[in-house]
Structure formats: structure tokens, C-alpha cells
Amino acid sequence: MKLQVAIDRVDREKALSMINKVTPHADIIEIGTSLIKDFGLKHLDQIMHSTHQALLLGDIKTNDEGEYEFIQGYQAGFDILTVMGSSSYETLTKCYHVTKEYGKDMMIDLLECTDEKIKKIASFPDAIYCLHTSIDKEKNQNPAQDIKAFKEKYPQIKRMAVAGGITLEELPSIKEAGPEIVIVGSGITKANDITNQVKIYKEALL
């Protein structure tokens, strides 16, 4: 099970410091949406070259112009890019084709997606589907249960991630539910000792 650490809502120097602290314990380093909006893809070069062996995810949350945005993202150096599941099937298809062309990974963010919508977009075999609780909403009380229910409902989807206020206490049940990726942001990045905290999270997933 992979640990993805989300870095967001800080300046570039702070982001770089956080990345250095969580690497090499994190499997995936996420450059968050707000960080990308604040500085842009072309002004994150120093960050892009600091993740060492960890994969780098750009949470660009593409909703349109999928081909253009995914080409720009992969050319900037990202290994994984996000597209909103609420976007059109055509946008998802274009993102997927670019992803395959570059030999990278695509994560579909299922934020606010209905069951009907998920059924329509569950046909991308190599995509990672992310169960995501909005930061603006109340915390999900049982992410492990949601993962199990999702797997039962969509057995054709083989790759899953979960995000949204994941705590250490929830990790044992989440691990049992078995997503491919667990995404943690402030639970790690707001700790007094970020390096020790990411170690604790990673060890809990082993």
C-alpha cells in the first residue's frame, strides 16, 4: 500500500522543506492544487527535481481541455495527474490517451460524483479512482467502510486511492479495506516533527 503526502497552501520554500522531510518515506509526493495555482507549472522547477525516488503527482484537477493540460503536466515532470470525474467522458478519454502516450498514470478524482456518473466512467482500466471527501465538508466518519462498499459496487475498478482527513487511528481498518494509495495531507504536514510523522504513517501501512 502506497502513502501519498499532499503538500499544499504553503510558499515554494516551505513546500521544498516539507518535501525534503517526507522523502524518502513517502511513495508519492503530491503538489496540491492551490500550490500549483499560486505558482504555476513553470515556476515549480526546484520542487519538481527534489522528490528523489518518490513519484510526483500534480493535483491539477483538470475539468476541460484535458489533452492540453495533461501534456503540459507531464512535460513539466509529473508522474501522475488528476482529472475530475465530474468532467465529460470526452475529457477523461483525452486525458487517458495522453497518459498512455507518456507512459504515466492518471488519477480520477471522484469528488461529488454520483453513482450514475461513476458507472459511466468506470471503463479506464489503468486509471486510479480516488474516493475523496471535500475539505469544505465534514470529515468522512468511516472511510474503510466506503472503500469496501465501492469495491463491491464497482468490481471492474482495480486501482483505488482514498483521501480526506485520514487519521492514524483509521489506518488499520483502511489497510484491511485495501486501497492502492492512502493520501494524507495535514495529518503529516502540520505535525511538529514531519519526518517522524510520515514514518509513523508509512509503518502503519506496511
Automatic annotation (TrEMBL):
<dbReference type="InterPro" id="IPR011060">
    <property type="entry name" value="RibuloseP-bd_barrel"/>
</dbReference>
<keyword id="KW-0456">Lyase</keyword>
<protein>
    <submittedName>
        <fullName>Orotidine 5'-phosphate decarboxylase / HUMPS family protein</fullName>
        <ecNumber>4.1.1.23</ecNumber>
    </submittedName>
</protein>
<dbReference type="InterPro" id="IPR013785">
    <property type="entry name" value="Aldolase_TIM"/>
</dbReference>
<dbReference type="InterPro" id="IPR001754">
    <property type="entry name" value="OMPdeCOase_dom"/>
</dbReference>
<feature type="domain" description="Orotidine 5'-phosphate decarboxylase">
    <location>
        <begin position="2"/>
        <end position="201"/>
    </location>
</feature>
<dbReference type="GO" id="GO:0004590">
    <property type="term" value="F:orotidine-5'-phosphate decarboxylase activity"/>
</dbReference>
<dbReference type="Pfam" id="PF00215">
    <property type="entry name" value="OMPdecase"/>
</dbReference>
